[in-house]
Write a structure and sequence with these properties.
homohexamer, 87 residues, mainly alpha, elongated, disordered N terminus
Chain lengths: 87, 87, 87, 87, 87, 87
């Protein structure tokens, strides 16, 4: 997972509350990458590894799974972005 | 996971709210693929990899698992598509 | 996972609501297989792969895990099949 | 996972409701094995495979994880076996 | 996972209710090991395997994941050990 | 996962309740590492292994997943750090 994106929160404090599922998915991606960079903070190493995992189906599916778990958390945080008509 | 489908939301904004479990499963598949394309946006690479993972039992099971996690999120979002008689 | 079963819903629309945990487990199996066939729809390929994964302990455990995640969803959908005496 | 136990429910219909966490853990084990036998019903094959996975640390940990997911479901079904004093 | 600890509940019946997150984490570890010993009860085999998995990063991470799933269950059981001031 | 951080709770008892998602993510990292050190307490072994897993994409993704599961627990414990305006 490309780590640069994890830091591109343009200084905004981390929040799980978003306006839409699309934004929520972005936060999930950010959190998944934050999990990687917290274990391996060296951007050069991560950049080198990107070439490996971004062409490995198993790693791509495993990354998608980490995003899925975080998206489940963010979706619950936003009450699934239900509108009144959905309730 | 065939990425083309992830973009076939014909321009509709992403939503977790659907009319049926069947539609909900489609959204789960779409989200699982979105997790892959967010890490590897290059469609040609994904198309090449498809030939590998679509014939690998472990990868097929792992893909099904990512869909299962997203389906759990979508099902909760739709209160499990319960009808009044189910409540 | 033997995909034929995923389509044997004898035309009934997909529903998470069942009368018993046993039926709920069947729906979980059906959903797990649906996740496989949505990625690899070719029945011949799936039949060929069945010979591989059905004798591989890791694949059997991984399949059981996908079923477990779907069963968690179906069980919540049915309020864990609690009867009044259980409440 | 030794499949014989999955069928030793002495004819009782499958239920998630139990009197204690210990019994709940037994149901979780039963469900995890049911997920294996639903994919591979041949007891002889399963018995042969047992020799492999029961001495493989990765497979033992993976089995424990499937049980953990089912135990989470069973624990929620039983309101975590809370007594009035716990509420 | 060192199985001896799974039995060190000094005869106390298994309970998910604990006084603190720290104790809750201990129960999660105990449940994760119980999942292993339910599949492989032979302590000698487990002791031999310990030498392998306790030096294998993938196995250590996988064990931590099983504990994480059980801890999620135990934390929910204890309403996340919230005090009145947290509510 | 670098185990030193798991003990750097400067003596404070483990708590899931934090002021922000950022702090919650730190607790999730701490819990994920606690899961590793509970299985392998030997710091020297862990330090040696760090060199391996911190450069292995699969291990980095798997670590991120354990953190994701714990973060889901911590987020629920803190009601997703919703403010009144979010309710």
């Amino acid at each position: 997972q490309d780590s640069s994106r994890a830091d591109s929160t343009d200084g905004e404090p981390l929040s799980l509350i978003t306006d839409s599922p699309e934004e929520g998915f972005e936060v999930a991606i950010q959190l998944a990458r934050k999990g990687v960079t917290s274990t391996q903070p060296d951007k050069e190493v991560l950049f080198m590894l990107r070439d490996v995992y971004s062409k490995d189906p198993d790693a791509l599916i495993a990354s998608s799974q980490v995003i899925a778990i975080h998206f489940q958390t963010v979706a619950a945080a936003n009450n699934y972005w239900r509108t009144d008509s959905d309730e």
